[in-house]
Amino acid sequence: MTALKLSLVGPDKTLVVNGEQTDSHGRFWSFKAADLASDTTYTLQLQDDTRPLGEPWPLKTMPSPSAQPEVMKLLCYTCAGGPNGFSLPGGREFFKPHKVRQTLFDTALAMQPDAAVAIGDHIYWDLRGSDSVTLRAGLIDDLITWYLKQIFGVFDRTAEIIGTPNEDVLTAIGDDQIADLYGTRFKSVPMFFIADDHDYFENDDADLGTFPPQSFNRRAHAAVAHLYYPAFIADQPASVGTDVHGYNRSFGSLRYGNLVDVPMVGCAGYLTVSGEHSVLFPKTVEDSLVSKIASDQTQHLAFMPSHPFAWTAGKWREWYPDVVAPNSDFSGLVENHLMDNVQGVLSVNAQKAVWQNGWWLQHQRLIKAIDNNHTRPTILLSGDIHTLGAKAIHASGDIEFSRRPIQTVLVGSVSTSNLALPSATRSLPAASPKWLQTKDLVATEEVNGFSIVEFKRSGIRATLLNCGGGPDSQLRDGTAINTT
């Protein structure tokens, strides 16, 4: 294929940007345009050396940092990945079909968001530290592994990714779970993708030691991101989260004039396991975030960590020590596994295998920074746990918020089906951590959905849209059935 170009026609000038080929077959191209006017709609057109390719489309740039927009509408969701079209007898499935997810997207886009953020788990292809694609489900596990290997192939973990047979495996997975799912629906909506555990081709299994990521997993995440996701607008130190191409894929920010700043942070790729000094993201990023929280450069701040504040599913890679124990008095070591049908209660008296107290200390430093800003509230928007809900945090450990509780939203998952809900994979639905005092603003439900967060000069309004599809629901088409 000849080289591609992108023309951008604005009200005052036209720019033509040469594309950068990002794969070895000429299917993937990226374009980096500079010197664009802020808050301006451009008409974009792809072309090769001889003719236009496809139809033109509009895309509007963000307001400048000093601009004073009156409103900004943000679409947020989590866990949109997963293979299409695979289900088990009796209607059991891990992931909703593409047509359900696409209807959900169309419902969200009809609300005309100014930008969209997908919070983690854009890819589900868990390698479990080897070349198997497994979910610890016995015979089901074996069937899924066999089926997916036949359809998509197997990685060679010792080889490079781009330019080897690994590239064909990677793009077969990415085409199915990203390109075929999204199509061109979001071409006029600026998009951001925050990485979480599955985006490194692993579930966060404590017993397998899948995190921190192995070398291959880091390279696989970077390759998918370079082919399929727009890069972050990074305001973190360049060396933190930056790939070999110079793009940041882990930490970034969405700034919309002086109205709102949205720092986005992945909590998987750079976590550490070192006791009291452990972090879910690097201290340099934390320090920058704390400074941002303390500042008043924007009227609102929306912090987006991939792992949620104020919910626990008993997983090891959480801010909190809660784990599913046999009973509330049990004080021994607990190693919960996916699909083990563990019976018990969420408890902090038991020892959660591999959990690090340093993660809680980082949580508390961030909570304290949010509470210390007396002039500007911060809303928390998170994903990962396959549920929809909103809470107010009134106390976190020994930190009480007598002046103003912290609002936190679990934004809703797109692809999750009945076998992947917390109550199915870990035997209990997601709940509030024992070390926090919270109040439900919107009841936590195991349903598909998304959130629209509207930032205005007068305040923040989060609208949570329930699209059904929970464990007892037959609603499967992705349309919104309830708004809170």
What layout of secondary structure does this protein have?
Elements: E1 5-9, E2 14-18, E3 20-21, E4 29-30, E5 41-47, E6 52-60, E7 71-78, H1 98-109, E8 115-119, H2 139-152, H3 165-182, E9 191-194, H4 215-228, E10 251-256, E11 260-265, H5 283-294, E12 300-305, E13 323-325, E14 333-334, E15 345-347, E16 351-352, H6 357-372, E17 378-382, E18 388-396, E19 399-400, E20 406-411, H7 422-425, E21 436-445, E22 449-456, E23 459-466, E24 482-483
Description:
- The chain is α/β, with parallel strands linked by helices and about 475 residues long.
- It contains 7 helices and 24 strands.
- The protein has helices at about 100-110, 140-150, 165-180, 215-230, 285-295, 355-370, 420-425, and strands spanning about 5-10, 15-20, 20, 30, 40-45, 50-60, 70-80, 115-120, 190-195, 250-255, 260-265, 300-305, 325, 335, 345, 350, 380, 390-395, 400, 405-410, 435-445, 450-455, 460-465, 480-484.
- The strands form 6 sheets. Strands 10, 11, 12, 17, 18, 19, 20 and 21 form an 8-stranded mixed beta sheet that branches. A 6-stranded mixed beta sheet has the order 9-8-7-22-23-24, with helices on one face.
- Helix 3 (about 165-180) crosses helix 4 and helix 5 (about 285-295) packs parallel to helix 6.
- The radius of gyration is 22 Å and the shape is globular.
**What is the radius of gyration?**
22 Å
Helix content: 10-25%
SSE class: alpha/beta
Number of strands: 24
Biggest sheet record: 8 strands, mixed
Tally of structural domains:
2
How much is the average pLDDT? 89
Amino- and carboxy-terminal Cα gap: 49 Å
Shape: globular
